[in-house]
């Protein structure tokens, strides 16, 4: 491959965006950025400070504290990937819970949150050679990315994947809870006013409902080779 490019991966929750992005970054020697982890970390911060719960969301208090929110990705050589740090504390495990999943889309709706994180994300990708996944990477963060992918799968398939992932980590959840979370996040992500989840006009859609991880990776790697 002759040149470094920017790879933008968007799509619905639990479509394996992060898995694919990690595979590509490792294969290509690129930087990987999980923007979902950044929004999850802000959601966790809001939960920790009682700005958000099932009964309320104090957006103004969260907005006022955003200057105090520091996000970092620090590489863990034992795991082989970078973990999310919130104000210098490793929160990689905490942000992956269903509790955080229940609030992350609501936090991501806040324009001030999106503005802060998009600015950081664009700075990370200034030198290309980056794989970034999220909800608005190809439509907002990197509009000129050389390769844009849009990942999708049925809500039932995604819920089953997410349920298996959570139970393997020892979390006590039901499939019905996870399916409800997936469907609610889909609705919020696609209906928010600021940067809703949509497929960029020049993005390649990949429905991986019936693709193995290996099949998906090989298919996308061929696409990368065709543009780099």
TrEMBL record:
Protein location: Cytoplasm
Domain Cytidylate kinase: 7-225
Main location: cytoplasm
Domain of life: Bacteria
Leading EC class: transferase
Catalytic activity: CMP + ATP = CDP + ADP; dCMP + ATP = dCDP + ADP
Keywords: ATP-binding, Cytoplasm, Kinase, Nucleotide-binding, Transferase
Pfam families cross-referenced by the UniProt entry: Cytidylate_kin
EC numbers for this chain: 2.7.4.25
Keyword Phosphoprotein: no
Binding-site residues for ATP, renumbered to this chain: 11-19
GO molecular function: kinase activity
InterPro entries for this protein: Cytidylate_kin, Cytidylate_kinase_dom, P-loop_NTPase
Similarity comment: family membership: Belongs to the cytidylate kinase family. Type 1 subfamily.
UniProt name for this protein: Cytidylate kinase
């Amino acid at each position: 491959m002759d040149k470094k490019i920017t790879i933008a991966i968007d799509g619905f929750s639990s479509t394996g965006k992060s898995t694919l992005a990690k595979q590509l970054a490792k294969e290509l020697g690129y930087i990987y950025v999980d923007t979902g982890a950044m929004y999850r970390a802000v959601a966790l911060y809001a939960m920790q400070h009682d700005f958000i719960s099932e009964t309320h969301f104090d957006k103004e208090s969260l907005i006022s504290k955003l200057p105090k929110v520091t996000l970092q990705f620090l590489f863990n050589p034992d795991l082989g990937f970078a973990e999310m740090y919130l104000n210098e504390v490793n929160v990689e495990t905490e942000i992956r819970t269903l509790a955080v999943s229940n609030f992350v889309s609501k936090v991501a709706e806040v324009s001030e949150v999106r503005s802060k994180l998009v600015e950081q994300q664009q700075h990370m990708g200034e030198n290309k050679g980056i794989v970034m996944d999220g909800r608005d990477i190809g439509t907002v963060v990197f509009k000129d990315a050389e390769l844009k992918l849009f990942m999708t799968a049925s809500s039932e398939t995604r819920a089953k994947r997410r349920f298996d992932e959570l139970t393997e980590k020892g979390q006590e959840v039901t499939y019905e809870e996870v399916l409800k979370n997936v469907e609610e996040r889909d609705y919020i992500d696609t209906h928010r006013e600021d940067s809703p989840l949509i497929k960029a006009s020049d993005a390649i859609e990949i429905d991986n409902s019936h693709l193995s991880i290996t099949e998906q990776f090989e298919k996308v790697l061929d696409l990368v080779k065709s543009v780099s």
